[in-house]
Amino acid sequence: MKFMKLGSNPDTFQDDGNEVSIAASELVSDITVRIGTTKFYLHKFPLLSKCAHFQKLIPTTGDENIEIHIHDIPGGAKAFEICAKFCYGMIVTLNAYNVIAARCAAEYLEMNETVDKGNLIYKIDIFLSSSIFRSWKDSIIVLGTTKAHLPWAEDLKLVSHCIESVASKASIDVSKVEWSYTYNRKKLPTENGHDSPWNGVKQQQFVPKDWWVEDLTDLDIDAYKQVITAIKTKGMVPKDVIGEAIKAYTYKKLPSLSKVSMIHGDAKVRAMLVTITCLLPSEKGSVSCSFLLKLLKATNLLKCGEMCRKELMKRIARQLEEASVSDLLIPTVDGDTTVYDIDLILSIVEEFVRQDSKNAQRHNGGDVNDHVSAPSASMITVAKIVDGYLAEVAKDPNIPVYKFFSLAETVSANSRPVHDGLYRAIDMYLKEHPGLGKSDKKRLCALMDCKKLSPDACAHAVQNERLPLRIVVQVLYHEQTRASAAATIRADSIGIGSYESSRSGATTNTEDEWDGVMAVEDLSLSKTTKLDKCDTASNKGANGRVKGGAAPKKALGKLMSSKGQTGERSSSDSSDSAILPSQEHPKRTPARSTTKSAAA
């Protein structure tokens, strides 16, 4: 830390509680200066020789002892004591912690060059420009002290000088950083591998792009806002670095943000959250979607205002494809009966869909058809996230069906290449809402496209007692159609080429077809279903494989027979688990099974 000593006479001030006097003096004190509860027993001449303010207050004639009350001097008694010692020529030490107070007090006392050459104001200004503002950490310390001396520090442009000093250093090329800084963070992903290996010669240490981030976390929110605004104005620092700085500051000041359900605060915390939201760079990706959602949770719980909430929702929608399901589980407020705020997520998804549609229009020159155009990669990812979110909120028995349906249909059907995730969410909702009416069940299940269910999902659906019979029949029909199509392709291949080559080609194509479907959702089901058990007795060949071509027909016949006899569909309880992502199962190849059936 930089410091400056003024004066040469020994310090003879004695501090006796609330009374300060000159100890080694042959002259009796002839003026008493009272600042707050502190009294200074001083002499007129030293004060009059340096301070124009006292020249206006102290009469030039008369030897009587006078007392002066000063109530509004910036810095209070401590700052006045520095000025008084300077008047006596005593040794005074200035540093980053007291220089602003001394400078403002000197201005109040009018200790300028018109009174005496080399006065205190002049010396402090030299110290600030030649030392303090050239130091990175001293500039930050000084900026932190200015708040206690407003509006003086602002009127004297001390605040603006501090901000300019800090912002300029933060914006400098990292190769020119030669001062010490605090850095306990992980490097940015783009900077990994930049450290030069040791080769026996001392090399310059690599300076990360966000070297300045941690030191600024000591500032209060008002000073921090001014510094970040100045840095953004200069335009030299990448937006992702600024975003990382704001994120680090937020976690330093609000450590409970990572556990947002525990966050609490007053108007000061709410104001800080609003300021942080306003400081975020406008560029997409400057901060993570996860961090934005944490901010949204906090602002939602603390009721930081509709403008702040809408701004965060708009930013989140722009990069919603980066979100995780756990990030979207935002709890409700105001005593809502539901666990999670599904309305909030619905608004975000709707905003994402609007933005994605605008992007598609720009890409296609303003001509786009939602029903025909291929969905963007972001839309496909968001559809998968929405399905995962629906599966989680479906566990809440208080979620009304219309909210579930509204969110599910917000994402268009062609944005879901595979409907396994949607099927899992619907099945979970049906499980947690057993009293759901037939019309609501039918409406929910109509969201699914049975042709887009994977073989494993189809196998699970045909034994799922929670699904309407109509849906199960559709699943069985499409399974049969898919198997027949595969058999036709196989037969055509046999007619064109040799048996071995056609067998290899048809089988490979069929397996690739299933792989392409499963790769989108990466979901799996239980290995054994009742559908398989129904066909075991009559459809197994010598090698124990089920004849896939006959399976759907036989299952459908048994299902209809069971329905006619009991009026109710039965199923094992294994369907309660729906689709279990952690299990792996062999791929079904209807083409092979059908071929063997034909050969037999």
From TrEMBL:
Pathway assignment: Protein modification; protein ubiquitination
Keyword Coiled coil: no
Domain NPH3: 210-482
SUPFAM superfamilies xrefs: POZ domain
The BTB domain, residue ranges: 29-96
Keywords: Ubl conjugation pathway
GTP-binding as UniProt keyword: no
Any GO BP: protein ubiquitination
Pfam families: BTB, NPH3
Annotated spans, Disordered: 533-600
Biased composition (Polar residues): 591-600
InterPro entries: BTB/POZ_dom, NPH3/RPT2-like, NPH3_dom, SKP1/BTB/POZ_sf
Compositionally biased residues, Low complexity: 548-559
Family designation: Belongs to the NPH3 family.
Protein's UniProt name: Phototropic-responsive NPH3 family protein
Organism: Miscanthus lutarioriparius
